[in-house]
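Data availability (excerpt). The following record was deposited with the supplementary files.
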Amino acid sequence: MLFILTGDVQSGKTRWLERLVAELAADGVESRGVLAPGVWRPREDGDDGGPHPLGSGEGAYEKLGIDNVLLPQGERLRFARRRDLAERDGQLNPASQSAAAQLAWEISGESLARVNAHFEMLAKSTFPERRTPDGAAVSTCSGQRASDAAVNFPYSEKRSPDGRPFEEAAHVSRETFVRKEGEGGAAAPAAGENACIPAAWRTVAAARPWLLVVDELGRLELERGCGLTAALDLVERGPVPGCAHALVVVRARLRDRAEERFAAAWGGCEALAPGDGARKAVRRAFGLASLIDN
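Predicted structure:
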């Protein structure tokens, strides 16, 4: 089942999803993908409540940017900065995908590459290896030959899953992984190779189920076909062994577009709004009893 979590701006979608991910983890259901919490600060003294910059939100706190938290390892990285702030500080790149789409946020190419690389690694651990007619390994999400599919990791607050700096673990070729015959697409590191993919991802048919989480797919992905392209590719593939369900966050006006694009691959979809009913629906999909809030 595909769950599409939607709602208005500042309706608490990511905060609700963070709580759900923690709750599912306590019940043995791992989440893999990305969360996108906002970066907020109290409004400055003297704010008269007049018009606020686009994207800054309303109320006593203003939104400065967006972080990404990569699941399951919990690595947090800077993803986007409010456009007016980036422009003020000379950090707005007019050639960026976000600037071309006139988003309220400046998203650097390095940030997109880092998160796409995360979804690439998840795909590599999930799907069988594909090859071109001449036998060359193909990167699962991008369609590139493995020799051309190296990724460079920009800033992050943590190290790679095996403890190395991301700069050191940056180049992971598709040849590192070989399909185990007769295991339905399970992948494992080739003998003698050192992989930076988390061990929990290396066996697709793991005993514990997991939830694919993408927070969020927006105009870049659903209207322009860019942005988090590796996440798009992963969602479009539908269920895989161990992962029968996915949860994707989209803005309300993009909900229909998301349903048209993804529902068939997942055998249907269910729209959710943050709240206890949505929480129960996801838990029910994993066969978990409803919890009672005190």
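Summary of structural features: Helices lie at 13-26, 83-88, 97-100, 109-126, 219-222, 229-236, 255-266, 276-285.
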